[in-house]
Amino acid sequence: MTQDRMPRSPVVTLDDLKLSPQSHGTRFHAAMAAIAAPFGAAHLGARLVEVPPGKAAWPFHAHHANDELFVILSGNGELRFGLDRYPVAAGMVAVCPAGGAETAHQLIATGPDPLRYVAVSTMREPEVMTYPDSGKLTVFAGAAPGGDKAKRRVAASLPHHGCGRLLGGRGDMNPIEFWFDFSSGYAFFAAQRIEALAAELGRTVLWRPYMLGAAFSVTGARGLSSTPLKRDYAQRDWARIARQRGLTFRPPADHPHVALAATRAFYWIEAQSPDAATAFAQRVFDLYFSDRLDTASPEAVSRLGPEVGLEPEALLAGIADPALKETVRKIGEDAVARGIFGSPFFLVDDEPFWGWDRMEMMAEWIRTGGW
């Protein structure tokens, strides 16, 4: 059923709905079917949702404009709501009004069977959604979340350091900003460690790819692979680190690639789902440094779309979007203006740390409050 071909009867049987699987990275999986939109309901959102055991359909989030209500049909789960957690089961209803971090919510399937529920929401726009676990926010205009994407004028994700301050734990402090070029060998090693390190420190990670050439144009530096003596040392060092950590490290013979396509893809994916963008970045690193991905090819990069729940055609179109190209260029320029010039480069509480070998110093700085 579509909005263009409305059903004759205003009554629908839930078991007759065709569920479509959706996934974002490795943590968020669900099968869904629209209920309200096919009947022409423009100001009411409703969908049938089925979540596999151990998963959630969406990240922990708060709506600042729209109220939500969940009718549990079957299975067992847990509702994260603000600072608290509540068990849910068939016959229960969870009400999550618009608000800030205090009404942030997430339904997680905790039983042996799928958690099945109907999600109902208002459809006000513009809307701002905040994600306390990752320290990000997404802005929607033209159409509310879950609404008609063809009418949507804005859907942009941004860092929002304060969105988790009411929640304690990982959301109550600024994230670690992780700046990198996808073709950076040392950034590859940093990417293997940064999430676990941040978790140990009670922080989240804000992944920020950019084109290192933007910094080189200001500093006059060259990449390691283009610099005599440094190139040979770096290749030896990368191989040594990989052996020590038991990692596969096999960059392409023509390394480094200009990873502009992968960088643009990241920011387009982030506008759809911040968590999917992180999973995408990790996958790009793994594939590029095992010589299985051309990060300069939009076509090759777009084929990763299904791994993060997106159609390759949509991702390819996103990479080519002129507005996105300008956004990515501006991100690189703004990074350099903030004093970011290398890969990997970290910012935490406005303190800069350059290089993979500064990660433990950064961790100690966070633990002690600096010196």
Account of the 3D structure:
This protein has 371 residues and is of the alpha+beta class. The protein has helices at 185-200, 213-219, 230-245, 260-272, 274-288, 298-302, 312-319, 322-337, 359-368; strands at residues 20-24, 28-34, 44-51, 62-63, 68-74, 76-81, 84-89, 93-96, 105-109, 115-122, 127-131, 136-141, 154-159, 176-180, 205-209, 345-348, 351-354. It has a six-stranded antiparallel sheet. A four-stranded antiparallel sheet has the order 4-11-12-13, covered by helices on one side. Helix 1 (185-200) links the parallel strand 14 and strand 15 (205-209). It is globular and about 75 Å long. The termini are far apart. Mean pLDDT is 89; it is low at 161-172.
Core attributes:
single chain; 371 residues; alpha+beta; six-stranded antiparallel beta sheet; four-stranded antiparallel beta sheet; 9 helices; 17 strands; 29% helix; globular
Distance between the first and last residues' Cα? 62 Å
Helical proportion, percent range? 25-40%
From the alpha carbons, calculate the radius of gyration and give it in angstroms: 22 Å
Please provide the ordered H/E string of secondary-structure elements: EEEEEEEEEEEEEEHEHHHHHHHEEH
